[in-house]
Amino acid sequence: MPKAMARHILVKTEAEAAQLKKRLANGEAFDVLARKHSTCPSGKKGGDLGEVRPGQMVRSIDQVIFKKALREVHGPVKSQFGYHLVQVFYRE
Fold it and tell me: pTM of the predicted model, to two decimals?
């Protein structure tokens, strides 16, 4: 079964996610922004989701993790929890 290693930042609004994406593009550290802004418990670990398998995450996040380009920050991606910025490190 495929698996991937990813991290994310979860926020309440699309505007907040877009602003954080700009900050990332300007060189701010993903893990620092995740610790400060993410409303997900993974924020305490810099947004680290660890290794995930298809179906473990909500569908919209699964689609990013298993289909989008590696090492890029994708999003904002909407889910029932809010808006995510997602970065995938590897996929097997």
Answer: 0.95
